[in-house]
Specification:
Layout (H helix, E strand, L loop, with lengths): L1 E2 L2 E2 L6 E2 L2 E5 L13 E5 L14 H4 L9 E2 L2 H10 L4 E4 L8 H12 L4 E6 L5 H8 L4 E5 L5 H8 L3 H14 L3 E8 L7 H15 L5 E5 L14 H14 L4 E4 L4 H4 L1 E2 L6 E6 L2 E5 L30 E3 L7
Parallel strand pairs: 5-7, 7-8, 8-9, 9-10, 10-11, 11-12
Antiparallel strand pairs: 1-2, 3-6, 4-5, 4-16, 13-14, 14-15
Bound molecules: iron/sulfur cluster (SF4).
The site of iron/sulfur cluster (SF4) has 11 residues, from loops.
Length: 320
């Protein structure tokens, strides 16, 4: 914010809280499956989504929301001491706390902890280069496929988000997956979903995982009904038909939509149920055991076993 004639960082070193989550909750299904991730955010956001499901922190201008104070090194140590594979910058968009996130990423990398950005991808190209140079993985929201939706319902624009996705694919090694929250009557038509999936195929290729997740009434859209599971299944069918290899459904119980299938022989390889891995069949070097196809992603030689827990932690009790 502006103080006097200077821009100052008012949220650096302060967080709205820390939690250990399954990596599948970010959601990332191809980034060290079954591992745990230490997650935190700050306050405020650079978008103004009328459907924001974290609006209590993303819309907050009240620094009292920021209860936990933690230096970048303290966060990295907390992740290490709790056996987390990665640290995620999430809940609100890390673009607005980029300096804090980037310093934390440096501290994490010094301890062999990976870093994850959960972001709307709405960022200027110069800042984008600096920010993503510190990230190992990202989940990027592609909230819709029309400028009208972005303008009216998020206060931002579609094209810069598409630019970020193309940048990540063609100019970085960041592993990234895409999430689209389907909102009844707003972005869930066959035509819009088809156009979006065709764009992903043409610009990013078939191996970028796509997650369709269910809206529930929130913030300034309390009158729109919850997304039915049938909408997510329909969207997944459209995406698979367009040629995408890894398409998932989120916020609903749908084992097929939670499962990673081999894109060549179609064998189920990672069977999940609500962040829990029921079956894991990838070879130690990330291939299908049946046809030897390489599965896109970042994998350890064995799966993690964190399960579907969510563990809040008091970061101020962490000691170096
Ligand atoms: S980008 Fe995410 S956190 Fe920010 S307002 Fe939109 S939904 Fe909320």
């Amino acid at each position: 914010m502006r103080e006097g004639n200077q821009i100052v960082l008012t949220t650096y070193g302060r967080s709205s809280g820390f939690c250990i989550d399954p990596i599948e909750k970010k959601p990332l299904n191809h980034f060290y499956p079954g591992s745990s991730v230490l997650s935190f955010g700050t306050a405020g956001c650079n978008l103004a989504c009328k459907f924001c499901q974290n609006w209590d922190i993303s819309k907050s201008k009240d620094m009292d929301q920021l209860m936990d104070q933690a230096s970048p090194v303290t966060i990295a140590i907390a992740a290490e001491q709790n056996g987390c594979k990665s640290v995620a910058f999430t809940y609100n968009d890390p673009v607005i706390f980029a300096e804090y996130a980037m310093d934390t990423a440096d501290a994490c990398h010094a301890r062999d902890i990976k870093t994850v950005a959960v972001t709307a991808g709405y960022i200027h190209e110069a800042a984008r280069r600096d920010f993503f140079s510190k990230m190992d993985a990202a989940n990027v929201d592609l909230k819709a496929f029309t400028e009208d939706f972005y303008f009216k319902l998020t206060g931002s624009q579609l094209q810069p988000v598409l630019d970020t996705l193309v940048y990540l694919k063609h100019e970085t090694d960041v592993w990234f997956e895409i999430t689209t929250l389907l909102i009844p009557g707003k972005n869930d038509s066959d035509e819009e979903i088809t156009a979006m999936c065709q764009w992903i195929m043409q610009q990013l290729g078939p191996d970028v995982p796509l997650h369709f997740s269910a809206f529930h009434p929130d913030y300034k859209m309390p009158d729109i009904p919850q997304t039915p599971a049938t909408t997510l299944v329909r969207a997944r069918d459209i995406a698979l038909h367009a040629g995408l290899h890894y398409v998932y459904t989120g916020n609903v119980h749908h084992i097929e939509g939670d499962t990673t299938f081999c894109p060549d022989c179609h064998a189920p390889l990672i069977v999940r149920d609500w962040y829990h891995i029921n079956e894991y069949r990838l070879t130690p070097d990330g291939h299908c055991p049946d046809c030897n196809s390489l599965i896109a992603g970042r994998f350890d030689s064995t799966q993690g076993h964190f399960g579907r827990q969510r563990i809040p932690i008091a970061i101020n009790r962490v000691r170096a």
